[in-house]
Each structure stands twice: as structure tokens, then as C-alpha cells.
Amino acid sequence: MYMKQKTSKKWRGRDAVLLAIALLFFIGFVLWQNNDLTLTQYAAATAKDVPKEGLKIVQVSDLHNKSFGKQNEKLLSRIREQNPDLILMTGDAADCCRTDIEVVLDFSAAATEIAPVYYVSGNHENRLRIDRKTALYAGLRESGVQILNDETQTVSVRGCEIVLLGLDDAHLAGGTLQTLCADLPENTLQILLAHEPQELTNYAAAGVDFVFSGHTHGGQVRLPFVGGLAAPDQGLFPQYDAGEFTENETVLYVSRGLGNSLFPVRVLNRPELVCVTVTAEE
Questions:
Q1: Could you tell me the pLDDT band of residue 172, with boundaries at 50, 70 and 90?
Q2: Among candidates 42, 41, 88, 55, which has minimal Cα distance to 280?
Q3: Quick check: 131 and 114 in contact, CB under 8 A?
Q4: Please, are residues 273 and 78 in contact by the beta-carbon 8 Å criterion?
């Protein structure tokens, strides 16, 4: 009886050690999954005019007030390394649950020193209290960020004109995009910023060349050989979870995003910075 009790205590102690090791491993894994910044690069070609050396676009999506290093220096450093022509911020830079907009404003001010920055709202910006939303947009404009909520802007990159279009998150469906696209030059590259990807059919019907979206957080949990587990507005196993999609002549890039919101954990789905290089078709 004594020997059995001694053996039982021994195994209980060993189980406690193994459980502690497993817990530490899990915590380390979660921290790595949520803070290790990745870069995904895409190459695209177009028959429309782009600079001879190509057009390099960096996409920053779903930051949710997250900071990678002090004052987001890790994120800013990765952006500088790409030497982009344009930086596109595709929504949910701020988080309606944590309204620390100063993180976004500090990041955007530093980003404008790297390249021109263009911004479109996400669902979280539209849910901010009106005073915080007003302060956010005022701060972005003051730092030099161009806000494209239901607006178009023609920009010049090394002698080539490019049209940027932005959809407010409240107007992704319906005729807003078609109105924005009316009378645009046919031979000018058209790039759309739209926070949510599930409206690809509407984006393609308007005939834009490239679309940059986020919103899905990559499905939050990514399953091997399957993809994202769930995404807002798409439900389980979303079609447009992350990556590159094509409909008609329109190419959509869906970023897995950088931060988290209500669900604070990413699994097999590290934060993602996207870089797309567009070159002329031969």
C-alpha cells in the first residue's frame, strides 16, 4: 500500500512538470504566432502603363492599434526595406474596442516619410465614437495620409499616371464603385482599396485592375491544406481568406492582417505585410 501511494505521488509530480512545460510551450507558440512579422510578396503584370522598373505597392491592413516594437519600428523597418512607391492602408488600422488612435497616428506619420500613404476605412473605423473618428481622420490628414473613402485620386509614379479608388466600408456593394469608375481613362491602371474581400464580384464588374482587401485576419486559425477557419461576413471556411484571387480581369489581394480584435489569438497565421510588384507585360 505504501509503495503504491509513493508511486502515485511520483507520477503526479511528473505530470505537473509536463503540464507546466506544455503550458510554457503553448504560451511561447502563441506569442510567436501573434508577433512574428511575415512578408508576402506577389508579382503581377499589366498591359497598362507602369514605370519601367515596375510599381511596388506595400499593403498595411488590420493593424488594430498593434505595435511591432517601440513606435512600430519593426513594421516600419520592413516597409522601408521594400522601398515602395505606394503604401496602402486598407482599413481597421484603429480598433473600436481599444480606441488608442495615437498608435495609428504615430505609425502613419512615420510611414508618410517612406512613401505616399493612401487610406480607406474598415468596419472598426466606422464603429468608433464620433469624437475618436473625427480625431483619427484629422490626425491622418495632418500627417499627410490621403483618405479615399468613396473617392478617387490620380497619382503620378515616375511619369506614369495611376488611378487609386477607395470604398468606404459602408459602401462596398451597390453602385458606389460604378459611379467612381465612370469616365476613368481606359488605359490607366486602376487600383481599388476596399476593406472587405467578399464583394469581389462587384469589384470585378466595375473593371478595376487590382483590389487590396483585408478584414478576414486570415481566418484567424489556419488549418493545414484547408485554409482559414472562419472570417467575419463569410462564416466558416471562407472563400476569400487570404492570398490572391482572380475574377474576370480583376486581381484581388487579401491580407491576413497585422493585429487582432475581439479574438486575440492567431494560430498558424502570423501577422502579414503584403508587397505587390506590378510590371509591364512583355
A1: very high
A2: 55
A3: no
A4: yes
Q: SS3 of 180, please? A: helix
C-alpha cell at 224: 493545414
pTM above 0.70, yes or no: yes
Mean pLDDT across the stretch 77-84? 98
Q: What is the end-to-end Cα distance of the chain in Å, rounded? A: 84
Sign of CA dihedral 151, 81, 157, 181: negative
Cβ(269)–Cβ(222) below 8 Å: yes
The 3-state secondary structure of 4-47, one letter per residue: HHHHHHHHHHHHHHHHHHHHHHHHHHHHHHHHCCEEEEEEEEEC
Q: Give me the DSSP letters along 48-83.
A: S---TT-EEEEEE---TT--SSGGGHHHHHHHHHH-
Which of the following CATH numbers is that of domain 39-280: 3.40.1830.10, 1.25.40.10, 3.40.50.1240, 3.60.21.10? Answer: 3.60.21.10
**Where in the chain are the domains?**
1-35, 39-280
pLDDT in tens, 217-229: 999 999 999 999 9
Over the stretch 32-42, which tens digit does the pLDDT of each residue have?
678 999 999 99
Q: At what angle do helices 101-111 and 130-142 cross, to 10 degrees?
A: 20
Q: Is the alpha carbon torsion for 33, 39, 44, 49 positive or negative? A: positive
**Burial annotation 9-35 (CB, 10 A radius, 16+ → b, else e):** eeeeeeeeeeeeeeeeeeeeeeeebbe
